[in-house]
Design goal:
The chain has 238 residues and is mainly α. The chain is built from eleven helices and two strands; from the N terminus they run ααβαααααβαααα. It has one domain: Biosynthetic peptidoglycan transglycosylase-like (Penicillin binding protein transpeptidase fold). The C terminus is likely disordered.
């Protein structure tokens, strides 16, 4: 009995230490860039390389933020981390067509997964994703979430973040991306290893004009304008 109590105390202490450690890490990343993500580490170990160059929000073209929102999460400024309408639609679709699973992850969920977790479909990992999504929405706020997403998202084979993508594909800094160039990069996000920007794949060629149109549609949204206000207006054309 004494042995069991001792084991229980060790388990409780370990849990408290881990909880405090992750909480401190979440708060720290409000201002500090993630040192590495599991996806980046996997790319490096797998021999695909790891090109990345974190830049601040002010050094990114507003077209880049607008493009990824248009492509991945058009209700980004409206939800609290979870787009319940999209989740409901995805569940109905997946029930009818289990062989063609559709996701409904928001940008916040993708950041939570990329920064804190690993790829997988277990309920345990999904539960952790919900927790970390809630935490970054609470602690970081939308602007920081978008900034981190633009810096850690895989945007090509071994290419992570908008700065590395911009320099790899267009030989320029992310702050000078045009509307079309930002849309092309955003078009690869569903599957960046298969949907190549250079040479341009058929999927990207088909998808980026739609993203451009969505960008025009969303551009007048006041919440989006306020969110993207901190980014640098590019010298490049539309």
């Amino acid at each position: 009995m004494h042995f069991l109590k001792k084991i229980w105390r060790i388990v409780v202490k370990t849990f408290i230490i881990l909880f405090v450690a992750q909480l401190v890490y979440v708060i720290l990343l409000r201002w500090v860039d993630p040192p590495i993500t599991t996806v980046q580490l996997g790319s490096w170990i797998g021999g695909n390389g790891m090109k990345r160059d974190y830049v601040s929000f002010t050094q990114i073209s507003p077209y880049a933020g607008l493009a990824v929102i248009a492509a991945e999460d058009q209700r980004f400024t409206e939800h609290n981390g979870f787009d319940w309408d999209s989740i409901e639609k995805a569940l109905k679709h997946n029930k009818k067509k289990p062989a063609r699973v559709r996701g409904a992850s928001t940008i916040s969920q993708q950041v939570a997964k990329n920064v804190f977790l690993w790829n997988g479909r277990s309920w345990f990992r999904k539960g952790l994703e919900v927790y970390f999504t809630f935490m970054i929405e609470l602690v970081w706020g939308k602007k920081r979430i978008l900034e981190v997403y633009l810096n850690v998202a895989e945007m090509g084979k071994g290419i992570f973040g908008i700065e590395a993508a911009s320099r790899s594909y267009f030989k320029k800094s992310a702050k000078n991306l045009t509307r079309k160039e930002a849309a092309m990069i955003a078009a690869c996000l569903p599957s960046p290893k298969r949907y190549t920007v250079k040479p341009i794949s058929s999927a990207v060629k088909r998808r980026y004009p739609w993203i451009e149109q969505q960008m025009w549609n969303l551009e007048g949204d006041k919440q989006l304008q306020e969110l993207l206000a901190g980014t640098k207006n590019p010298k490049a054309g539309r």
